């Protein structure tokens, strides 16, 4: 196949002789030799190891710079929130003093608990009471967690889920002031206080 200088193609099998086109322009035969440097589909792998390490380092450094920037921005925003909350506390303390509360710093800070994905509000506490109410002796934290997972139909084979349940349970037990802690064989047992 040959291509004309103006881009007109003489089709194979046509009665136009080589070197001529349909319009009489001079045609240039296309090169049939393969290019000496074919484009590689593995450009990265074809490069020297030192070059690949340098490029990989650039990607890693770029990702770390981006992550550091993100975390730094989050810290700056949290610091702004802390400053706003501290200013709010100063104003609230001043009003409390005006109404006769001599030492607002003596007011205990309220625990802010995170919502659990596994329990509705108050559900974990109610399950703990149900377990301890029927127990004749103090119950280990591990045993309480197992009973709760069985009651909720939670698969114990996923270690991450088990750890989340135990963390929620520990926070709940810590907040339940009417329970008694009982040391049992190096672990902590619980019973309902009298």
TrEMBL record:
Keywords attached to this entry: Coiled coil
Highest taxon of source: Bacteria
UniProt region (Disordered), positions on chain: 13-41
Coiled-coil segments: 61-95
Name the UniProt record assigns to this protein: OmpR/PhoB-type domain-containing protein
Organism: Skermanella cutis
Lineage: Bacteria, Pseudomonadati, Pseudomonadota, Alphaproteobacteria, Rhodospirillales
């Amino acid at each position: 196949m040959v291509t004309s200088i103006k881009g007109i193609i003489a089709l194979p099998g046509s009665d136009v002789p080589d070197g001529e086109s349909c319009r009489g322009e001079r045609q240039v035969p296309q090169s049939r030799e393969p290019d000496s440097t074919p484009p590689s589909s593995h450009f990265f792998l074809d490069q020297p190891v030192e070059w690949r390490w340098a490029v990989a380092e650039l990607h890693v450094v770029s990702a770390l710079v981006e992550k550091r920037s993100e975390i730094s921005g989050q810290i700056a925003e949290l610091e702004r929130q802390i400053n706003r909350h501290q200013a709010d506390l100063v104003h609230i303390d001043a009003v409390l003093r005006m109404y006769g509360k001599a030492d607002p710093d003596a007011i205990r800070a309220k625990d802010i608990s995170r919502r659990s994905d596994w329990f509705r509000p108050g559900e974990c506490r109610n399950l703990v009471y149900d377990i301890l109410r029927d127990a004749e002796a103090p119950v280990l934290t591990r045993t309480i967690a197992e009973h709760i997972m069985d009651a909720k139909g939670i698969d114990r084979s996923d270690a991450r889920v088990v750890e989340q349940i135990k963390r929620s349970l520990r926070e709940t037990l810590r907040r339940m002031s009417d329970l008694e802690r009982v040391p049992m064989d190096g672990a902590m047992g619980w019973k309902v206080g009298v």
